[in-house]
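subagent[fold] <- orchestrator: predict structure for attached chain, return tokens only, no commentary.
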Amino acid sequence: MGPHSITDTWLVVPVYNESEVVADVITEARKTFPHVVCIDDGSSDESASEALRAGAIVVVHPVNLGQGAALQTGFDYVRDCTDAAYAVTFDADGQHDPGDAAAMVSRARAEGLGFVFGSRFMDGRTRPGLAKRLVLGVAVFGTRLTTGLDLTDAHNGLRVIRRDALEGIALHQHGMAHASEIVAALASTGLPWAEHPVHIRYTDYSRAKGQSLLNSVNILADLILK
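subagent[fold] -> orchestrator:
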């Protein structure tokens, strides 16, 4: 552990066929966050062994259940098997910066916040394309209507969740629509919260792995029709 390690926080990292990058992502993250649980969600590659090699705890889903289910498994692990004060949801594809996550934990601690959402739209570091901006804008509008939370970025996967807030999360949307479900569950706790500016590191790899525009539209339709 380094001199600036955050030892009362666990990273929760869903993993599905990320063997190409996951070891590097976990190795970088563990310089700040030594405690990492990866949920291998039915990968057909060597993701689980690569995550283990990098020092993570790995919980395996024998079949692919979706990112929402993987996150719920990670939340259950943190609640039941650790004494963590905070959980951080963190992507396996290298898009998230551990420095941003550390700043969010520090803010949650300093301000007594139950949860902190990352936002790619609060400063100029992240530049998503126009189509992605439009879809994310619709998601923000829908989230404001359904949860009352005035977010600028409703589908950002980097979140800090204090232990008491974590107790209120029971995800039923196993696919990508879980992102809005998490917001609603956290909103219902009534705990104080904030958004924090983060940098989403779009790479050729993450773009190739990321959601298509059509998939994003389908997520919104799925949430509206539920």
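orchestrator: received. Logging for downstream: The chain has one domain: 9-225. The two ends are 45 Å apart (CA to CA).
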